Amino acid sequence: MNSLNNKPSTKHRHNITYLQEWGQWERKDGYLVREKRRYSFCGDCGYRKNLRSEEIETVGGNDLQMHPINFLNASEIKIANHILKELYKSNNKKRWNSWKDSLFKKWNFGLVEITIDKLHMHGFIIKRKRKDKTRINHWNLHCILFNEDFMVSIESFLKINKVKKQKWEEVPFPPLSPAGSGNAKILFDLILTNQKHYNNGGALIECTNGEKLVFPKSSGNSYLKIIRGLHGLYQLTISERHLFLKEFSQEFFSDTKLFSKSDRGKLDRIVGGIEKFGLLQSRNEVLISGTFSWEWDGEIGNSMAFKNYLALPRDMVSEIKLTKWQGKRLLIIENQDLFISVAKGNVLNKNEWIILFGSGYLSTEEYTVVGELISLGLQQIYFWCDLDPYGYFIADNFIKNTNTNIPIYLFGFNSNWFSKLPVYKELLQTDKSEIDKLLKEDIPFQIKEVLFMMKETGFKGEQEYFINFLDRKTFEETILAESIKLN
């Protein structure tokens, strides 16, 4: 008789091995929970029988990695720093039963428990518990571990700076599908030529006209950025697509600002005219939304003839004369997707507000439009920029370049909006340098506060992630209540 399945057998007797493994995470009461499952296994026939679980792990189920300074007080931050640093240094091999005594000697027992509970609730710490065999439905804590999914946030909190290479830095010359003729063939041959220079140990790039640009070591990853830019141009050319600078930077560098106008200029010099390869100079329209009328070449136009927003050709802006404008407040939005969402969503009254797409630092055409609005009685200007140091610089640059007494505000640039971001991006070294400079300047405390949060967390944010926060009923009130006056 086989004692494991109660079935008579004369042919097989199980060769039992006892194994254990962690199951899948399951969401329960706001936490993620998984069990270590023990089972018996026959290596001969594959028979398996699950046994009782005696160990579980739990961790907060938050998707947003909120920085600890947002949910811990000063004393708790000190304890959290010590705990996470010790777990990090030991690679999660601290023995809780022996370690906890030293923690409780150094800090108040209750304060340590509160700190661990908060870190656990917000997803930074995993609690591992064992079944208490003397009590029903009770589990005893026997180990704490840092959550490896929160590694970037933990390293930022502990101020551990790791230089992480992007894929395009690790593999500068990925395999290319051969090109037949035309512009694609020109780029294909150019990339192969420069790959030979790279393989020979030279950080130089040969141009289509034979000129060679040398990149010194002090230039950092500038050389690899340009190489990646050439690959990006090749991808655009073979797919017959066209992108503007920010879109190009986002697609091939995962950041709208990483590939700059200066980088574009170098690439233009290398290929001898960049637009024919798909990277466009700049948008050729000024996007604007509001209630206004204009005159051009003896003709009269009205914005009400267009739905949501109007695209004014840049080469006409200096020739168009604005004759009437109804709104008294101007909102300048840096991100195009957000601009279109605000304009199409009608979250602002077009009779009260003018909305302008700024695309970073304002160009001559945008300055021309704003200048005419001021002459027609504009009363307030609001900037809505990315949550990075350049977001402040864009508004500040406008103030320095205009001679106006109109109040100028910065919207969405405070700790509240930073905490609401659903997605964050890592700060670049250039971002960190600019933040350090700004923190030394005399700027509004709300801006310093959010810059400090960026520095502490190691993250920044972009506007497009705020699209879901637009509320037609309260958006205008939010702008007026939460904007920071800059002049």
Commentary on this structure:
This protein has 487 residues and is α+β, with helices and mostly antiparallel strands. Helix content is 38%, strand content 21%. The chain contains 17 helices and 21 strands. Strands 1, 2, 3, 4, 5, 6 and 7 form a 7-stranded antiparallel beta sheet that branches. The protein has a 7-stranded mixed beta sheet with strand order 13-10-16-15-17-18-21. Strands 12-11-14 form a 3-stranded antiparallel beta sheet, covered by helices on one side. Strand 11 (292-296) and strand 12 (299-302) form a beta hairpin. Helix 1 packs across helix 3. The chain is globular and about 95 Å long. The relative contact order is 0.07.
